[in-house]
Please model this.
Amino acid sequence: PRCQSPNARAPAPLQRTRSIMETDSAVTDLLETWEDYLLSDVLGVSLSARLAKVKQSQLMASLCEELRAEYAQTGERPKLVSSGLVDRVLVTRLTEFPPNAGVVVYLLRCYENANKAGGTPLRGKNASKEAERQEAFQTAKNSIITYFHLTVTNPGMWRSDASVEGMQAFVMALKNPGASPMPRGFMDHLVRHLLENSELSTFVPMLMDVIAADVDRLVALPGGLATATGLIPIYTALTNLSTQKEICRAMAESPFFVMPDDLTGSKVFSSTLIGKLLMYTIDKESFAARDGLNLVEEYMRTAPGEDLEYPNLVKLGEVLEGQRKQYTQIALAAHGLVRNLLKEPTLRERIFQWMGKVCDLNVEKKKTAVQHGMVRADVSDDLHLFNLLHLLLNMCEPFCNLDTEKGLKLAAKVDLAFFTAETRFSVAKDDRLAVSGENLDRWLDRRNLARIQQFQAREAALGPAAKSADGEGTAKLAAEPRSFGTVSEFLGLASRVCHLCVIPAVSRYNRVDRVIENMKRQKLRLEQLGASGGAFRQLRVQMELTRLSAELEKEVLWRLQMNSVLFDTNFLTALLSLLRLQSYSVMRLAAEEANEPQSTLTRLPLPQPEDGSLFAALPDHIIEDAAEVLAFVAFRLNPNPRTHRG
Model:
């Protein structure tokens, strides 16, 4: 053969061998070029034994042989950028070599790899191939999104060793608390894919079902705040989802944010997903010290009138500090979620309606018997209301700082007509700042005749200006429906929730020590009584002791819960800032209605409001709450009464 002319025909066997060599060479060049573009860097697989060893990727020899055979049969060079080729690689990878971490995690990593590899363009002599290379990356991303959608909506589609697959695996990925839980652009790409295929309306309910089941499971578990920290990843998952407007709209139509009609105070939090996310609490197990000592039980064992011993007080301080840190973390995570959800108008309206419903269904909290635990009214748990208040205080933070120019500008947007408009909640049964004979019983002691005569004489002298805020003027104010800005909504709701949870808690806390002391003395008497007497008497005493011990544990636990919440520095700072803003807004309104500069209103009483004025129609708690909280904080932080004169 070496002596033959180059144009001479080779024997048939030799010609066939040359064809195979040309085929092998062409396919190898093609696959290695394509692999440099895509395979090893993005999908983590290889069709070349040499590159598989160099790049430490998964060799798919069977697919490589298929491609060689197809090329040898057709003689057509496969297109370098082909969705069909990417699909074949993915299907082979997921069926023959299932990822240990799970298919969902693998596809998310592939998308992230495509972002990284595509972010470094080719330079120099290879720059001409950059456009084709970028097209290959985009083709791979499209295929990854398609198979991701199929995988999460069809669990069990692939043979996988992962314990969690399908939509649950996607939710777990969304819960990732890292700085970048989802690859850049992944959620946008997924939403576009779902919209193009008209799948968003079915995809989102499936996703919300998994999240809601997670929330229900966590809420039902014991463990207090230790378990409640498991809600933070769920907040993160929903926050990642709520960055997509289309998903937010679909979430708004889901039943998880729609309130049922037959609601009660005790069920209002469990009625919607946003309420369930605020049902974390501090239970008895949350007060276990590092050495296993339960401080609730230890406090119950102390003698009447005595506190915990000093070593146990130190342990209690450590436990309370840890609880407050957890509380702050959960509240901040909830704040990030709600801030995103409120950007969608439908969700915003649903959330505000739910908050208003919480206020209306917990009006019984204002009654003294309920505050002191003597009547079990159908109202929400104290800590659930505190959780909602903590969330609202975080939402109010930008405009509660009156020491900055920005804070003053935002505070100027507060419209106190929100309280009388009854857009979210009703104050019809509340006392008002301007009082008349109609609600005299709630303001003046009927036994103090001189005070009543003084009031009536003053009212007669003022004439029509002293009409009741519950009269025609107020009815006119409340009869005009209107919308309010976010600042007014947040301030009004936070003020009302504060009135329904903080003020009753302050009233009960001021007497809970006496209640606990009386229970301990009663328990001691019963124990002494049961030491003597017959079997029947001892049985009755034992039953009464069991009941009394349960009541005592409930009171002690409540007291320690309030120690954790009411004396949290972050919470108190935010609450006092809110009350300061309330007082500032009332003074500003009084100045506007009196046509006087606000700086002149430094002495009480304020100018008498005119008939039908907004100031006269405001509920009196908007001022009284600030005074009660300030008195409580001042006394508890420094119990020496001499320091509080004046």
Q: What stands out?
A: The CA atoms of residues 530 and 540 lie 9 Å apart. Residues 1-23, 464-479, 641-646 have pLDDT under 50 and may be disordered.
